[in-house]
Design a protein that fits this description.
Length: 299
């Protein structure tokens, strides 16, 4: 590709700078169509971004994208996520953006939080209401947030990378947080060791559903611009360790493969993750990271 073509290429969704082609891939996780997607790496902020968002993006979210009902198997992983949040807020009004099937929301309710949610899937909204959460049906969470009462905690578990307007979401979240409240964002990590090894085959690229993978340092800077200070940044929390296994498992056996292959891949992935623990669990080189920010304004 010539430098002239590169200069005309789509710019970073986060900072508007030019980016270089990093990888090209298909929808490897769901096999919905054979279209190829380019991801570029921003020269200024390091974000890995989908160059062209398909006009028919909604079709890449099939009905089984939300495994509703799975929250009945309340598991250690969801409990650990609530426990991580409770290190920073003991209770109060919790707002979850994009809870999907609602496993975390259910565990937060059980732990005494009042839970509200903004969710783009209508069936998931019905389910959230049935388990005792309030749910607002919207695919534009930054707009829905502007209408909502203040929250003690706002959480996005693997949602930020799906947002068409991530900066508007950050601004709206900062404006909705109570003084002293916290914003928790967990996302795939563009500095992951596994991305360097697997490239376009890394399952956390999740083309074309993931629109941007933002480096931790960039997210910290963006949060600072809306008045939020980092209080935790980790790639080795329980959820992060689970996502490391998930990445290797889905590399070995995509979700569309048979049950036996997926089961075998799970055990192989657990072993790979154990062997790579010194690499993946240190220095933010894991598949994901979780950042917690506090709204220090007014206190
Ligand atoms: Zn950028």
């Amino acid at each position: 590709m010539s430098s002239r073509a590169s200069d005309a290429a789509p710019r970073c969704r986060i900072c508007g700078s030019a980016g270089d082609l990093r990888l090209t891939t298909t929808d490897r996780n769901r096999s919905i169509g054979a279209e190829r997607f380019d991801y570029r790496s921003c020269r200024a902020c390091g974000t890995l971004y989908l160059a062209e968002v398909p006009a028919d993006l909604a079709r890449y979210y099939p009905p089984d994208y939300y495994p509703i009902g799975a929250e009945h198997e309340t598991n250690e992983s969801e409990r650990a996520k609530v426990a991580l949040l409770q290190r920073f807020v003991s209770g109060g009004a919790l707002l979850e953006i994009g809870p999907g099937a609602g496993g975390f929301a259910a565990e937060a309710l059980r732990s005494g939080f009042g839970v509200r949610a903004i969710e783009m899937d209508e069936r998931a909204c019905d389910h959230l209401r049935a388990i005792g959460a309030q749910a607002v049906h919207s695919a534009e969470p930054h707009r829905a947030l502007a209408e909502m009462a203040p929250a003690r905690a706002i959480v996005l578990w693997h949602v930020f990378e799906h947002l068409a307007e991530p900066l508007a979401l950050l601004r709206a979240a900062a404006a909705t947080l109570e003084p002293g409240g916290v914003l928790l964002i967990a996302v795939p990590n563009p500095a992951a060791f596994a991305l360097r090894v697997l490239g376009a085959r890394w399952p956390h690229v999740d083309a074309p559903r993931h629109l941007q993978l933002v480096p931790a340092a960039t997210l910290v800077r963006l949060a600072g611009e809306v008045g939020l200070a980092p209080v935790a940044l980790t790639g080795s929390d329980r959820a992060g360790r689970d996502w490391n296994v998930f990445g290797w498992q889905h590399f070995l056996a995509p979700p569309t493969s048979g049950a036996v292959r997926r089961r075998a891949a799970f055990y192989a992935a657990a072993l790979v993750s154990l062997l790579l623990a010194p690499v993946e669990r240190g220095g933010l080189r894991g598949s994901t990271y979780t950042a917690v920010f506090r709204n220090d304004g007014g206190i």
